[in-house]
Amino acid sequence: MSAAEDIDAPAESRGRRLDIPKGDPLDGAGQPGGARTAREARAHLHIPLGPARLRAEPAPYPLPEGPLPREELDRLRRLYRTVPGYAAMRDHLRRTGLLALCGEPGTGRAWTGLALLSELSELAGGGVSRLGAGIPHGLGIPHVADAALGSGIPYGPGIPYGLGTPHDSVLPLGPGIPQGPSGVEKTERGHGYLLELPADQADFAIEPLLDRLRAHFAGHEAFCVVLVAGGPAADRLLRGRRHAVPYEPPAAADVLDRHLTELLADRPTGLLETAHTTARRPELAEALGLDEPRPGEAARLAELLAAHAEGRLSEERLLEHCRSFAPDQARAWFLEAGRPGTLPAALPALRAAALRIALAVFNGSAHSLMAEAAELLAWELAVTLDPQYAPGRPLFAARPGASLATARAVHGDGVEDLGDASVPVRAVWFEGRRLAPAVLHESWDAHHNLRGPMARWLRGLCDDPRPQVWVRAAVAAGVLCARDYLYGLVELALPLARTDSPVQRMAAATALAEASRTPEVRPAVNGLLRDWARGDDERERETAALAHGYGLAAGSVAASLEELGRIACADDGRTTSYGVLRLLAGSEPETVLTALTRWLRDTRRPRRDLALLTVLRAVTTRTSHLWGLREVPELEPYAAWPPATAVLAAHPECAPRLAELLRAALTWARSAGAAEDALVGWIRRAAGDERQLTVLCGFLPRLAQDGDEPLDAAAATRIREVLEAL
């Protein structure tokens, strides 16, 4: 070793030998499966949404409350598409006088109910009335409380004191079915009534309520269809199967076609075809971001397509409206969850909100991971609403998969990457690629008091050693930090960076790098990391090094390398070399190799050590373990190889610089031993893969000679022995 190698090195460290770095700063917690998880998290959350100020348009065909005019029923018959099981529903309603349709709002339940009532009431010589979310006391229904008490069911907050008292006085009501005027004075013979139960109807009150309603309407030879939203009440009803049926909506394409035909019936023939052609365009489907629009959304889309075909709506404005569909759904979900005010009555709504938020973070992941995360968040929400109440967990689901329907989600077969292998899982995902970012943004932007429990929840997930958990949580935390950096810094980034958990520090680095994608936020993140890099806090300095390993915060890979070079002067090289190696496995390997060559010739020993340690890591680490926050498709075919081999295969022009760096590591006394061991292991691992071996054999001759500096004899002998043993 030359004297120049020891310039600026303290006396006690001169001659210290470098060893092959073992593992990464997380001791493997970010390696197996991290690449796939990061890629999926980015894909699900990096979707631009519509303008925040664009609100939902009114429903194209609003259903009025009270008696429906004949022309309204005629229009309904023209537009309505028969749903699966319609005939069985009609027969049940005719026989019993009552039918409960259990399904989600916006799926066409009301139209199906009115179609059923219209058909039966027309035969009976009556009309149809829509009662909305309340029973007018003019109907004269006796007290539901009497039925509940008589059946031994406890009288609670979900059962109203009275439904339809005979006088004008209004009795106090719990959160059951409120009384409200709808223009209906009494129950008429042969008439049909559509009633929608409140979303927070207590599940134990639902069956006695429907029993009383059935007896009332059957006694008056009338018909009633009750709309029940998904949740505990619907689950209880569907278990009993006495009055309820699960509602399956009609196909969106059929609804869209029927509404377009109605809207453009008296217009030139070509406009209908124009609207259909526009509906099939990929950019419109991408703007919607929904796998299958619900009937209400299909009707709204028909209005937009008709306006566009007639020239009343521009192309840009049409796509803008389409991009608002998913945010409108998220907004409706959280408005619904905001109604209950106390526990335990609020728990079902809180669990539904928690599930939707957890699914936004874990979209496409194993159902078990998402479900556990949802329960953890539900607990955080519950103790925030009522700190003195410790909620438990329901042990048995009434209907497996029912909770997913409330979140427009489905499950199916999937896989989770474990590095060397993949395992089958029961995966879960939203039925629409825009729903995940819409839910995450709506919960964070529009509901300030949700931020505290969400931040605590994400910080807890970021301490999970499984990359399938902490990587998704960290990416989501970064997305939220970008939306409100001042809040996210204090509640997410700083607490994570200042812990003793290496996984949480890596999560902090990931979140900050993710947040720096936003140009307006990047200068703030870069400044923070610069302060940390020059500070005395080892944890903050390590977080800065890890964050720069993504090549985002400083604005470029070259700028991140400069920061890592500075941090190396106060670091032992383990963390900074890992950051540099992650950049080498990125999209600009030539930039990284140029910096390593410059550091190798630097008079400052920490920078030379950083270059040597990075080279040693390059032949001993697996490329997929060095996942970043950018796509590197050119290295994807070589994800299982060491990054040195992967770079040689994808970028043959990098071979001269890589050879120079490896020669230096093999010939310098301080790194020769470790470099020989690394090189031997590199060759042995390649021996089992013909493609790797071909790349390596084409590269090894470059190490043998470089002008007047031949390869060290001992290193050459060991390499030859390994090759002869293959």
Summarize the structure.
This protein is of the alpha/beta class and 726 residues long. It is built from 33 helices and eight strands.
Topology (SSEs and partners):
Elements: H1 34-45, E1 66-67, H2 70-79, H3 86-96, E2 98-102, H4 109-124, E3 128-132, H5 144-150, E4 192-196, H6 203-219, E5 223-228, H7 232-240, E6 244-246, H8 252-263, H9 269-279, H10 282-288, H11 295-309, H12 315-323, H13 325-337, H14 347-361, H15 367-385, H16 402-405, E7 409-417, E8 422-430, H17 435-446, H18 448-461, H19 467-483, H20 485-497, H21 502-515, H22 522-534, H23 538-548, H24 557-567, H25 574-584, H26 589-600, H27 605-618, H28 643-650, H29 655-667, H30 669-686, H31 690-699, H32 701-704, H33 713-725
Parallel strand pairs: 2-5, 2-6, 3-4, 4-5
Antiparallel strand pairs: 1-3, 7-8
Helix pairs in contact: 1-19, 3-4, 6-7, 8-11, 9-11, 10-12, 11-12, 13-14, 13-17, 14-15, 14-17, 15-18, 17-18, 18-19, 18-20, 19-20, 19-21, 20-21, 21-23, 22-23, 23-24, 23-25, 24-25, 24-26, 25-26, 25-27, 26-27, 26-29, 27-29, 29-30, 30-33
Low-confidence stretches: 1-15, 50-54, 143-183
Quickly count the helices: 33
Apparent shape = elongated
Main beta sheet strand tally, sense and closure: 6 strands, mixed
The helix content is 40-55%
Mean pLDDT: 84
Protein structure class = alpha/beta
Number of strands: 8
Beta content comes to 5-15%
What distance lies between the first and last C-alpha atoms, to the nearest angstrom? 33 Å
What is the C-alpha radius of gyration, as a whole number of Å? 33 Å
Strand order of the largest sheet: 1-3-4-5-2-6
